[in-house]
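Reply to dn_fold:

You asked what the input looked like. This is it:
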Amino acid sequence: MRCGLPERIISIIVTIGILIIPVGCSGGHSGGSPLSTPVSDIRDSPASGAGGHFLIGYWDAYIPDSHDSMEIVPGRSNSIHLNIRKLLEEAPCTDCFKVVELVLDQVEQILTASIRITHPLPGLDAYTVFDVRVVIITDGSLYFPSMDAMIPDIASGDFTIIESDGYTRLWNTVEFGEGTGPFPILEYSKGKLAFQGEFTGTVNPYISYGVEPRNHLGTTQALTRTLDFKLVPGKIRLGYAIDASWELPTVNPPHDIETDFPVSANALEPVITSVSIVENITEIPGSTGEIEFSLYDYQGAETVESASLECPDLWTGELIPSEIEITTPTDLYIRFEIINESGMPIGDYPALLRVKDQEEDFWLGDINHAYTLITIPVLEAINPEMTGDLVYIAPGPPSSTGEPGASNVWHLDLDTMIETQLTDFFGVGYLFHDPRINPLGTHHLHCAGPSPGYSNVRVYEFGGGNWAIPTDEVDDFADFHPDGIHIITASGEQWGNTPDLYMMEYDGSNRTKIATAPDTIRNPAVSPNGGFIAMTLGLEFVDPPSSELWLYDMDESKFTEIMAAPGIDVHPSWSPVPVDGEYLLIYESSRDHHPNYETDLYIINPFTEEIIFHYDTGSGENHPSFSPDGLSFVYSAQPENISDTELFIYFWQTDELLQVTDDDTYDQSPSWGWGW
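and this is what came back:
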């Protein structure tokens, strides 16, 4: 049902500072008392019907060149059987739409308006409304030809709100102008002081009013939202529309908002809740990427009919989704493969998403669409040159006496692509864990032993000698400290029981116990500033597998579990340099494939536990290690078209993948030297 609420002309004078100004509502023609009108009559009124929307109010506003005053003018003066004028002006409500505060920042040229909406029928719970939206209607200059949508754009000098909750085609003056609707309450009409002509924006931003459950506005509620407008030079015109959705309750009077109103009481169109650039595009012509949208639909995710994405600067026409995934009865993800067709230069480009519902509005037709305006960045293409040093594990050749080659540590110079075997074990029995290069690029280490019951740290100097660090315990995993002097190792009585952290010098001297963890430590990795140690606690090779990611704070002497999730978390690696101001972690996890334990790679901020990047090629990526600049990482995997595990480098900000090794044997557990 859609109905218009009558209002009176409002003048608001804005001076420097803060003014608190009541804004009332007044009426059009009068009628009988709404309290004597049966609920069934509301459904039979000329404005009711499928689609669920009705217009609470419509105003025009004008700000002159001086930006020192505002006039708000009613664009409608209609009511239906409910006699809205009496409800809003006489009893019980006199100010159900109210600007409670206006602030003009003349330095930043930002106008802030706090607007309160109060339900006009307190206590009449059958008239609880849903998905109330204040739509800001202005001129636009951003045109999407395939969707025939004109959008207000601050960057182009349009006056509009700085942030919105979404966009709608409803109530724009081009398509809902006077004489276009089946009834006056379903079309735009000018107020007495309104400017002649139309606002050119056809898809306009809105601010949502509502609380859970179901984003409703109850009959005893008043909700206030703050809107920020960026002022632009010259005269400023704008319109306001207040749109809401409603349906007769199935239980009257209703007691439970969640269950006593049908799902059709909410707006038919879905709500676009988030957007994520999964893979960025670059300025290279034909560069591709991926973008993902999350949506929520009260009517059910299966009621979404179609979606399209348009960005005229980057590609021609509208893209259709590469994938639509329904995750719950009301939630879904929509993914698009995006492309820089002609190779537009580095910059930010506006794109418009439109999602259509299967149903049409009873009176207005095919308008149940959700829109959102986003920005797609085009990034600089990183030259996929590989530099620095890798150490990794691969089998060595047989010995001169015919002993089979065992697992060994190899070195790969990425500048020359020359491989060098660093160890010369033969036969079986030796176990290797996490080979590492120290930050100075002078030494590497690994842990190895002839049997699972014994292992120690072995240190190699590039161009020099090598040695094993003796100990009465089992040193099963180790890492270099960034100070260039010390080694951190996980130690214990036997393999699989190494809960102690030790620090020692490269030759094993001055061995000092740091802490004892709650479980077996694996894969310790020292942060570049030396303040934290990331590690895995638990064993991923037991049944059932059990390993979690933990941080040890060196200053606070405190263990903290992070990124808890079902599955295994292993092999953390720090970014050697801050990325956007923070040292990041990349690690291997099966959290998205539990309990199958197929692993993906995740880049996270370990201090906020925010997932920055998720990498999944379906090939069981493992053992990642950041590059020296933090812009790429190396990992091992076995794609379907490759006979054995190989090493790959992925530029995670520009979606470029390089295969590093290509042979008939396994290459695994890579570690990238920082080269400070």
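The chain is about 0% helix and 45% strand.
Hope that clears it up.
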